[in-house]
Write a structure and sequence with these properties.
The protein is α/β, with parallel strands linked by helices. Helices cover 42% and strands 15% of the residues. Bound molecules: ligand TUI.
C-alpha cells in the first residue's frame, strides 16, 4: 500500500483524486471513484444550488464513502454552491479557477476541509495561511483552465512553500506519473483526463473516442487573451478560436460568445463542429477504457512497484 497522510486525513484508501471537471464530473463518476477507494468529486461548475444538491443527493445514494465537491470560482453561483455544500455536510471541497481565500472561513467554520487547486506558490501560501487542509498543485499540462507552470516545476516549489500536504495534478495518467509526483514531494495525485474514458464517465462517445485517439501534440491552449487560458483538443473549432485571438479586429466579446457553451456541446452532444473537448496533454497515453476501480488500482500498483524499485538508481 502507498503510504500517504491523505488516506487517514480524508478516510480514503488510495491517494487519488478525480478532477472536478465541468460537464463531466457528475454523481455517477464521483461515486464510482469513491467506491473504488479514491476521492470522487462532483463539479459544481455553473450549477445553481438546486442542481448541485440534486447531484449530491444522487451521489449519497450511490456511495457510503466520502466524496467532495469542486467549486469553480468563475461561476456566478459560487454563493449558492457554498451554502449547499455546508448544508449537505460535504467533507471536502476543492476549488479552481480563482483565489479561494475569500470563501475559506465559511467552509472551514462549517467543518468542510478545503483543498484549493493552486497554480503558483503565492496562492498556495495564501490558502495554507487561511487554513487549507492541503493544496492541489496543478501544472499546465492539465486540461481545462491552466496556469503557467509545469507540474515538474510547480509541485516541488509548492512543497517547499507550504507545510501542508500537496497533491500533484496535470499530466499524470499512470503509475509512472504518480511515482514521479511522490518523488517531487507530493503525497497524492489528481487525475482528470484518465477518468474521461472511464466506464462510469457519462460524457458523449465522440468525446471519449477523440481522447482515446489523441496523440501527444494534439492539445492547444486558447483563451489567453481573455485571461482564462484553456487546454483542449485541437479541432477545427479550437484552431479557429486560436486564430481569432490573434486577430485584433475580433473583439473580446465576440471571442467570449464563440466559446460560450462549447464544453457542454462537447460533453453532452459530442458536437464535433462546435464542441470544446477539454483534456490534458496526457491524452496521447490514454488508449484504454477501464472502470474507475481498474484505473485507480492499476495506477497505484504501478506506482508502488516503481517506488519500491527506486533504489536501483543508487549504488
Ligand atoms: O479550474 C480548473 N480547470 C477548469 S475550470 C473550467 S470551466 C471554464 N470554462 C471556460 C473558461 C474558463 C473556465 C475548465 N477547467 N483547474 C484548476 C485551476 N485553478 N487551474 C488554474 C487555477 C487557478 C488559477 C488562478 C487557481 C487559482 C488562481 O488564482 C488566481 C487569482 O489570483 O485569482
Amino acid at each position: 500500500m502507498l503510504n500517504s497522510v491523505l488516506c487517514e486525513l480524508l478516510g480514503i484508501r488510495y491517494p487519488v483524486f478525480q478532477g472536478g471537471m465541468a460537464w463531466v464530473a457528475d454523481a455517477g463518476l464521483a461515486s464510482a471513484v469513491s467506491n473504488a477507494g479514491g476521492l470522487g468529486l462532483i463539479a459544481a461548475m455553473n450549477s445553481n444550488g438546486e442542481q448541485l444538491r440534486e447531484q449530491i443527493l444522487k451521489a449519497k445514494e450511490l456511495t457510503d464513502r466520502p466524496f467532495g465537491v469542486n467549486i469553480m470560482l468563475m461561476s456566478p453561483f459560487v454563493e449558492e454552491a457554498l451554502q449547499v455544500v455546508c448544508e449537505e455536510k460535504i467533507p471536502v471541497v476543492t476549488t479552481g479557477a480563482g483565489n479561494p481565500t475569500p470563501y475559506m472561513d465559511r467552509l472551514i467554520n462549517a467543518g468542510v476541509k478545503v483543498i484549493p487547486v493552486v497554480p503558483s506558490t503565492a496562492i498556495a501560501k495564501m490558502a495554507a495561511r487561511k487554513g487549507a487542509t492541503a493544496v492541489i498543485a496543478e501544472g499546465g499540462e492539465s486540461g481545462g483552465h491552466v496556469g503557467d507552470l509545469t507540474t515538474m516545476t510547480l509541485v516541488p516549489q509548492v512543497c517547499d512553500a507550504v507545510d501542508i500536504p500537496v497533491i500533484a495534478a496535470g499530466g499524470i495518467g499512470d503509475g509512472r506519473g504518480m511515482a514521479a509526483a511522490f518523488m517531487l514531494g507530493a503525497c497524492g495525485v489528481q487525475m482528470g483526463t484518465r477518468f474521461l474514458v472511464a466506464d462510469e464517465c457519462s460524457i458523449h462517445e465522440n468525446y471519449k473516442e477523440k481522447v482515446l485517439k489523441a496523440k501527444d501534440i494534439e492539445t492547444i491552449v486558447t483563451g489567453k487573451r481573455l485571461g482564462h487560458p484553456v487546454r483542449s483538443l485541437k479541432t477545427p473549432f479550437s484552431k479557429a478560436f486560436f486564430q481569432k485571438e490573434y486577430d485584433s479586429s475580433v473583439s473580446n466579446e465576440e471571442l467570449e460568445k464563440m466559446g460560450a457553451g462549447s464544453l457542454r456541446l462537447a460533453a453532452r452532444e459530442g458536437d464535433l463542429e462546435r464542441g470544446s473537448f477539454m483534456c490534458g496533454q496526457i491524452a496521447g497515453m490514454v488508449h484504454e477504457r477501464m472502470s474507475c476501480e481498474e484505473i485507480i488500482k492499476s495506477v497505484c500498483s504501478e506506482a508502488e512497484e516503481i517506488l519500491k524499485g527506486a533504489s536501483k538508481w543508487v549504488k
